[in-house]
Amino acid sequence: MSDKYGYHKEQLQSDIVFIDVEVDVNSKKILDAGAITGDGLQLHSNSVPELLSFINGKEYICGHNIIKHDLQYIQKAANADISKIKPIDTLYLSPLLFPAKPYHALLKDDKLQTEELNNPLNDAIKAKDLFYDELSAFGALNNELKQIYYALLADKKEFKSFFEFANSHYSDINAVNLIRTGFLDKICRHVDLGKIVKNSPVELAYCLALINTDSRYSITPPWIIRNYPEVERVMYLLRNNSCLQGCSYCDKSLDAKVGLKKFFGFDSYRTYDGKTLQEDAVKAAIDNKSIIAVFPTGGGKSVTFQVPALMSGESVKGLTVVISPLQSLMKDQVDNLEKANITEAVTINGLLDPIERAKSFERVENGSASILYISPESLRSKSIERLLLGRNVVRFVIDEAHCFSSWGQDFRVDYLYIGDFIKNLQEMKNLENKIPVSCFTATAKQNVIQDIKDYFQEKLSLQLETFSSKAARTNLKYKVIPKENDEDKYDALRNLIDAKNCPTIIYVSRTQKAYKIAKRLSEDGYPARPYHGKMDKQEKSENQDAFIRGDVDIMVATSAFGMGVDKKDVGMVIHYELSDSLENYVQEAGRAGRDENITADCYALYNEEDLNKHFILLNQTKLNIKEIQQIWKAIKDITRFRATVSNSALEIARKAGWDDNVADIETRVKTAISALEEAGYLKRGQNMPRIYANSILCRNAQEAVDKINKSEKFTGPQKQHAVRIIKKLFSSKSRKQATGEEAEARIDYISDHLGIVKEEVINAINLLREEKILADTKDLTAFIKKNENKNRSMSIAESIAKIERFLASKFKEEEKLFHIKELNEEAEENGCDDVSPNKIRSIINLWVIKNWIKREQNDLSKNHLAILSNYSEKDLKDKLAKRHELAGFIVDFLYRKSAEDMPPDEPDKEEVLVEFSVHQLKNEYEKQNLLLKLNVSLSDIEDALFYLSRIDAIKIEGGFMVVYNKLTIERLEQDNKRRYKTEDYRKLNQFYENKIRQIHIVGEYAKKMISDYKEALRFVDDYFQLNYTSFLGKYFKGGRQDEIKRNITPAKFRQLFGELSPAQLGIIKDSSSPYIVVAAGPGSGKTRVLVHKLASLLLMEDVKHEQLLMVTFSRAAATEFKKRLLDLIGNAAVFIEIKTFHAYCFDLLGKVGSIDESQTIISKAVERIRNNDIEPNHIAKTVLVIDEAQDMDIHEFELIKALMEQNEEMRVIAVGDDDQNIYEFRGASSEYMERFISEQKAQKVELTTNYRSKSNLIEFTNQFAKRISHRIKETPVIPNTNENGLLKIIRYSGSNLIEPVFKSVLSSGFTGSTCVLTCTNSEALQITGLLLNNGLPAKLIQSNDGFNLFDLLEVRYFIGQLNSSGVEYVISDSNWESAKKNLIYKFGKSTKIDVCLNLIKDFELSNPKRKYKSDFEIFVKESKIEDFIRASGETILVSTIHKSKGREFDNVIIMLDGFNPENDEKKRQLYVAMTRAKHSLAIHLNGNYLDNISAKDIVRINDNHRYNPSNLLVMHLTHKDIWLDYFISKQNILSNLNSGDELIITDDGCADKKGNLIVKFSKKYKEKITEFINKGFKPSEARINYIVYWQKEGTEGEILIILPELKFVKSEMKSETGQK
Predict the structure, then answer these.
(1) Which of 157, 383, 1481, 1546 has a CA between 20 and 30 Å from the CA of residue 560?
(2) Looking at the DSSP assignment, which residues form a beta bridge with residue 1315?
């Protein structure tokens, strides 16, 4: 035949023509054509008649992909029949004749390789070269193969003419026999070849061509998989479908043991309890079954899926996709295989650098990889989808498969997308057979296994066969050691390490703990390394390698360590804290004793508090239904005008009102979106940037490369990138496969394949467009709202620019610490009207991204930032000016364009989509006739666009913005009223409920292990083997079933709720009433109930600390709540927001608050909330708690209403006692509490048991309370005791009660705390003075009217001692302690030292973790001096009634001189005073209004003695009583004085002991002194009451001033005795 063939070839050269045409995609017209005959004649023309004439008379027409492409267009254009010419298509021949790698040099998948653009003649010449190579390759085949191909393909139009041309003709071929003989040992002997020959001949031919290569890494080209999907099934039947009878091929290539020996060198598989589970699972996979395997840690899980994967890689060139949640683990698996000389595995994940990522893509594409490890998140990537479409995917392996089940220990909503992805892939590939799956998990309960099986049955109709090992590890010994506290645990840890010197893993639950213990052990001489999941990649692998090599024997790690780590000789695992589930505990403990010849010890150091930490962590990390509803609300908002949007997770979180500082915010947003997707509300699209590097303008690659090299716009590395990109684009250019081309020109595809980061690809593409190498494509879109004039966008840009200019003046080229609220306030003073802390944060983020500044933010303080500028102030301002001018131009341009682009047929459209490009903007800007036009680059335009989008002036999508917007969301549920419901949340809720039980169960295991080893082991066995309901029924009988539903340990539950009354407990247990008002009588444990309610909200009711707000009326109350909460629930209380109304509003407006500035702040905040001027994350709350609700005024009530309007379903709990509303003078009224009850239909609960006062005191006050005309409480207060106290009413017939009251205190002999209550400040002062003069310890509860506590000298000195200079955020403990010592040393004799120390102590108690100087300053500014005046020992306190509210005393003496309770306000005042008493109450009065109230054991005394006014007068001078300017010249003397120092009174003022006049009285005060003297008083003594700082208006600095206390005594004592 060869002679014939040779002769024929010569003859036929003139009978064949090779052609290629270029067609317009839209009009389908031929634009250009090229042709060459076999003997070398050429044509290049765009004339169809010329082409037809050139073809005319030829017998054969040949080209690449001409049957489906060129010929159809020629036929249409010619309007003539060209069907007589016989077509030969090199496309279909190439996989048959060049099936082995390296493939033909002219081919890339289905395209001809070219560096030319739009030159059909060149492509025709290439087709000719390729065709003759194919002809030679065919000639070189053995005769049997030629016959097989002929038998299968000779009658198919794609091949028929080729056989004719090659003069290849056979008759009477038995294809089946030929294949059987020719492919003996290469395919299964029992495959039904007759059926395949009949039904799928082309596919069979392609498969045989590939099998015949005997090449491990040659694969079916992706275009064949796309066009002939049956090819995968045929390959499977030939080589991957093990026959029952056995045959030479199947016995060798599909034998599990042969595979194991071949790839891993082992002779046999591992057995469990004598069972061949591992081998059985491998066989099932080889048989293409879907399986679920439960193998213990170290049980050879990896080998179980790697053997079948490597075998099918060889047999059918298949790809096995392994989905695993842990990116670091994937890398370890690939590395471990490489150590075993297996290089067929790759991973594609976020930890790879671009080069590694590109290498992985290349290896999957070219067939050299048969195992691909990816994360569930990767399934969202378009590049990955395209990669898998081009390969024969033979199996999906899902690691950590318990993540599918809400019964498992780690349910992940993103796993639920896996089934949809596989289903979608099968549909896109038109697969008849389903792709099988293998699920693996180390520990799984029965219902978890069932859940996984149900999932795959439902999603993919797959039935999973179970392979579960029930065998416990026999070489592990368990022990649980109970320990009281951390110190005991550490000692036990050292003892265990001392007792057994071996490789040891110590498991801890928090990352900080890992560092702390590793450091402490190392310092104590036990070399140890830390390890946790979020650790830096390099440190992580260094520490891991050091442990595996044996350089260190101790690894202190979180649960992230050990997965996939193969260290056989770990002799001890110690759980420093118990794991959060039995599954995890067994898995972690199982990392010991992988070598079955050693006995390993597994210890757990147990303290029940560890479980509470798990509960708290679960509460903080769980995604509750409210949060998903907030995300849904945000998405409804974002998709108002269009169904599909592209946003970053952070943008969505902010829109939902989430705090930026929430841990793992991106993961949480994605989980919420997955949950909404699972419930059918939306569909998450694939992460797919819509930037294409298409429309090449150069004729060939060389021309483009020359242009790049000549250009001055590219830097060196950019040139290299651009050349690589251009070559890539030319090589994938094809005018015939429009579908694939777009994908290959997409930037993520280019980035993935060339290993260049996306940002750099975008930069290069932009420069290529600018150099006119690529055409400009309008890949940016702006959404312009109709009816919104450009002034809105402009004004946003203007206002941000103002703030930026201000910040540019603040940030210097050396690092400096800033407090964001102080910056915000300063910006406002500098004319930035609508500045807010969030805007400042956004600008700082923007500048950091642009590398204008460096920022260091403290994790623990949201408000502190250390900033260093990379530019001078002038440079920064120049950059801003340029950006701002461009931003203005862009806004103007886009608004003009939106008016032009308004679709005439859609005049009502809310938003207009404007398409544009960076180049277009640059050109338009340069066209302007401006005198001072800026010289702008593309990156300047990009910078301005990015800026406009970031500040929300214009919503821009697409283009380079894709790097920032990672999520594409399509809204499916169009009903705006539809909300995410409890039913939708069922799966997640079930998971969280189950997590709670798991924590209880692991705690139960620990207790059993302490008391009964065998019983504990049985408990574990039953947990995994029994049906879950049976297990719970067996071990948690009766009421214990409820106990393990609570996310709190039984002991903690008793501590929290054991001692509460039924009424108090009712409030705490009510988790469903949206609005609760607790009307709490005096002494009814209101504070306690609130503290326990807050604890319950946090620990039991699923409320996140950032979504909980409590408002109070005083800083002291806020501190008290914080202190009590910390005592009750520990660190979980640290982050709860408990603020005064004013402090919260200062916070909302981004100001540093102080009491004296607080008059209008609440109404300002309300106005800003209602105008939507406050960022959602400051006001998004799910629970609001109001303390002392009866004291609200109209502004505070409006604030509550405004917060309720913003948060649709916010729960509100208000607590108060309308009988104690005594601040009507400042607008407070219980009317607002009443309105809240009626308007919101709130549930009213009365707390009426009084735990404070004795029975008869309550009987007395109850009768008095009835006189108050309008009351919310309907039930009288009930005493908690039957004991009676001392109740005395002393009624005087005259006035001047100071002296008798003072004498009664003098003679009383009280024990316990005592307080004298008066109606006025002046009375309180006189009584305090008299008590002190008579040697009794007394303290006045005074206020700091006229100055802020921050101005007190002692306080200011202490603050000055705190060095938080430079960029130190936190005050160190040693600095804090030394500041206290210095304060005591300097001011130990000051009468205000107690106030200072109490203030410091309160701050310490409410900030136990870290102390910030700025926080302390704010704490001081918001506090009042009266809150820190406390009695110690037998000190008697003296106070006005108003200042006593909220306090309680053993003994209360009330002086009511001339007091008349004629109205409700006065009655409530007296009620408050009387209800302060615990044991004894004495009321001194000169009115008859208490005459007809009776009570048990009441003592009534009538005193008809006539008393004189007091002979002592005490005065506290304020700012207006002294000449302030006089102090300017006395500063040096003042600095050495103390509060309490004695002064000498002179005519003009007060002098120090040396006679220096240091205080001068004001003119008015001198007149007052004259009045006193005329009444018989003379000045007797003086002392310093306060030394404070004062700043004169209009001056810069502050000066010290003295506010003295003066005493006046009557010069002659006239005693008038009253006569009857």
Answers:
(1) 383
(2) 1437, 1452
Output 1577 or 769, whichever has higher pLDDT.
1577
**What span, in angstroms and rounded, lies between the C-alpha atoms of 285 and 269?**
15
The Cα 149–Cα 140 span in angstroms is: 14
**Span 358-397, pLDDT tens digits:** 888 889 988 889 999 998 888 988 889 989 998 999 999 9
> Cα–Cα distance between 113 and 96 in angstroms, integer?
18
Long-range pairs of 819-824 with CB within 8 A, sequence gap ≥ 24 = 819/863, 819/864, 819/1152, 819/1414, 820/862, 820/863, 820/864, 820/865, 820/1150, 821/863, 821/1146, 821/1147, 821/1150, 821/1151, 821/1152, 822/1152, 822/1414, 824/1150, 824/1151
Q: Is 141 exposed, middle or buried (0-12, 13-18, 19+ CB in 10 A)?
A: middle
Contact 1109, 1139 (CB under 8 A): yes
d(CA 615, CA 1125): 17
Question: How far from 1603 is each of 718, 1352, 1521, CA to CA, in Å?
Answer: 72, 11, 9
| CA distance linking residue 329 with residue 374, whole number of Å | 10
Nearest in space to 1116 (alpha carbons), one of 1403, 1340, 1341, 1410:
1403
In whole angstroms, what is the distance from residue 660 CA to residue 842 CA?
11
What span, in angstroms and rounded, lies between the C-alpha atoms of 222 and 226? Answer: 6
Q: Is the pTM of this model over 0.90?
A: no
* pLDDT of the residue at 700: 76
Q: List, in sequence order, every residue forming a beta bridge with 911; answer none if it has no partner.
A: 785
Q: How many CA atoms lie within 13 A of 752 on its CB side?
A: 27
- Taking CB atoms within 8 Å and a gap of at least 24, the contacts of 1526-1529 are 1526/1559, 1526/1560, 1527/1558, 1527/1590, 1527/1599, 1527/1600, 1527/1601, 1527/1602, 1528/1599
Edge-to-edge strands of the sheet including 1211-1216? 1137-1140, 1108-1112, 1183-1186, 1211-1216, 1075-1080, 1243-1247
Residues 6+ apart with CB under 8 A from 587: 296, 297, 442, 443
Cis peptide leading into 102, omega within 30 of 0?
Answer: yes
For tokens 């461009």, the residue is 886
Q: Alpha-carbon dihedral of residues 734, 737, 742, 748, nearest 10 degrees?
A: -80
Q: How many CB atoms lie within 10 A of CB 392?
A: 25
The whole-angstrom separation of Cα 410 and Cα 1564 is 76
Classify residue 275 by its DSSP letter: B
Collapse the DSSP code of 44 into the 3-class scheme (helix H, G, I; strand E, B; otherwise coil) and give the result.
Answer: strand
**1300, 1503 contact by CB (below 8 A):** yes
Helix, strand or coil for residue 782? strand
Residue with tokens 């010592």: 1381
DSSP string, 1028-1066: HHHHHHHHS-TTHHHHTTSSS-HHHHHHHHTT--HHHHH
> Which candidate, 601, 518, 531, 529, places its Cα nearest to that of 559?
531
Q: Which residues of 143-180 are buried (b: 16+ CB within 10 A; e: fewer)?
A: eebbbbbbbbbbeeebbebbbbbbebeeeeeebbebbe
Q: To which residue do tokens 């923007």 refer?
A: 846
Distance between CA 216 and CA 342 in Å, rounded? 13
Contact 1450, 1478 (CB under 8 A): yes
Q: Model confidence over 231-241: pLDDT tens digits?
A: 999 999 999 88
> 1139 φ, ψ to 5°?
-140, 160
**Single-letter amino acid, residue 947:** Y
Chain centroid, CA 640 distance in Å: 25
Query: Collapsing DSSP states into helix, strand and coil, what is residue 1081?
Result: coil
- Please list the residues that pair with 913 across neighbouring strands: 783
Report pLDDT digits (tens) over 1413-1440: 888 988 898 888 988 988 877 889 999 9
Sign of the dihedral defined by the CA atoms of residues 990, 991, 996, 1002, in that order: positive
1607: phi then psi, degrees, rounded to nearest 5: -115, 140
